[in-house]
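Researcher: We're teaching a course module on how sequence relates to structure. For the next exercise, students receive a sequence and then see the predicted structure as tokens, so they can try to spot secondary structure elements on their own. Here is the exercise chain.
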Amino acid sequence: MAAPNSICCADASSSQRDPPNSAKSHRKGGGSGLDSALLRFVPSYARLESWGAIVAVIRYAETMTLLTGAAIALCGVLMAWTAGIQSGDARVQAT
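Model: And here is the predicted structure for the students to work with:
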């Protein structure tokens, strides 16, 4: 049996594709990149036993996710509010 890292076929690596449900197959662009950053930084910091850096990276990712969600929610509320004002909804208009 050949070792996993040995090359047994010339076109084996070129014929391998990402599985259909992998993160790469669904990525169309426009993402924040936090998923790939966490997958890259956390293992390297763990190998260095830099636990404070792991906590900081995860805290940063959580904070950015929360702020992005809040910004999107705020945009939705503002759009609904302005749509209510433009349609003449008496419940939304200030008197």
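Model: If you want an answer key for the exercise: Residues 32-86 form one domain. The longest helix spans residues 51-86.
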